[in-house]
Every structure is written in C-alpha cells, then in structure tokens.
Predict the structure.
Amino acid sequence: MTPPITVCVEGNIGSGKTTFLKHFKKFPEVRVFDEPISKWRDCQGYNLLDLMYKDPRKWSLCFQSYVQLTMLDLHTKPIVQPIKMIERSIFSAQYCFVQNMRNEGLMEDAQYAVLSEWFDFTTKNLPINLDLIVYLRTDPEVAFKRIAQRGRSEENAIKMEYIQSVHKLHEDWLINNQKHLPCPVLTIDANLELADMAPNYQLCEEKMFQKQK
Ligand code: TTP
Ligand code: MG
C-alpha cells in the first residue's frame, strides 16, 4: 500500500485553519485531525496556553516543548485513509512561534538552543512526511479582528504587534524562502469571508487528490 499523503494547513492565529479543515471532513479518503490546541489547554489538568500568555518568560519553553510533542504525535500517527490533513506542523511551531519568542526576548538563547536541537533531531530522524502546505494568507488586521470576535479567553491580551510579527514570520517562511520548506505551498487568500471560500476549497481538493494519484 502506498503511504498516505499529508497536507498541513498553516496561517496566522485566527486565519481560519480550523474552519478550513472542517470542509474536508466529508471526504471518506481524508482523515482530518482535530487541532491539538485542546491538549495545550489541558496537559494533565494544566492549561499551558494560559500559563504561557500570562507569563511568557516563565512558560514559553515549557509550552513550546509540549506543542512540539503534540505536533510530532500528529505527524507520526498511522492512518488507514490515503490522505491526512492536520492543523499546523512542527515547522510553524519552530519557525513562527519559537522564533518569535526568541526575537522578543521571551526565551533565553540557551532555551532556544535546546528546543532547536530537539527540532533538528526529530525532523531528521522521525518519519515526518509533508506533501502539501496550504497557506491561509491573511492581512494581520483580518486575523486580529477574528481573534477578537471568537473571544478565546487565553488570547484576550494579544496585541496587534504580536499578530504582525507572527504574520511576518509566516511570510518569511512560506513566501520569502527564508527557512527550509519541506514541501510545495498552495497559497490561498484567506481574507475572504467564508461564503466566498468555495473556489479555494476546490483548488485545495484538486491539488490534494492529484497528489494522491
Ligand atoms: P493556532 O495554532 O494558530 O490555531 P488557531 O485555532 O488560533 O487558528 P485558526 O483560527 O486559524 O484555526 O494558535 C492557537 C494558539 O496557540 C494561539 O493562541 C497561538 C498559540 N501558539 C503558540 O503560542 N505557539 C505555537 O507554536 C503554536 C502552534 C500556537
Ligand atoms: Mg484553529
């Protein structure tokens, strides 16, 4: 049997990744994994996401090391369907979030070094196969508005500058070729309202099913 192909959906916080993934749950060939954020909010009873936002200097390393573990779990999970779809990847965790925490001085250089060593080791030695990245590209203003609208309690103090930095790191990685790209990228205009997204779903379906053949 040919190994499944893996598609990961990337984009800023609030870009619409979870909503985008929902559309693909109807295909029997596709196994869509729920976002790992529920684990980040409850690791043996600890809400690591909340701890990290409340005191990033203290908790960023702990939080990001758990994000890394949950992403590895998703990347390596065996499935019976021919297509795996996941929200995010170990790559965006490292290139967009860990990098940002280091840039902002929220993570010590030594802490960053340890996470980077884990990242390098696991991405080299574990079977993390990515076949397509779908980049939901938004203007930071749009992502910021959506985050405010959904009102996730941990995120209520997020500032526009933070969303701008995370946006820039996604752009550097997925558009400007400044980091390693593990597979081709399909960029989608995700500023659109949900009602106007149908052609984009179709574009993604075509690419995905074409790869699977
Ligand atoms: P996202 O992984 O961007 O998920 P989302 O559900 O907010 O995105 P969408 O609306 O597009 O579905 O972020 C979830 C939260 O976790 C957010 O507050 C940012 C935070 N986060 C980090 O701090 N570090 C990380 O490495 C990742 C992946 C997320
Ligand atoms: Mg989500």
Summary: Residues 19 and 194 are 9 Å apart (CA to CA). The first strand starts at residue 5 and ends at 11.
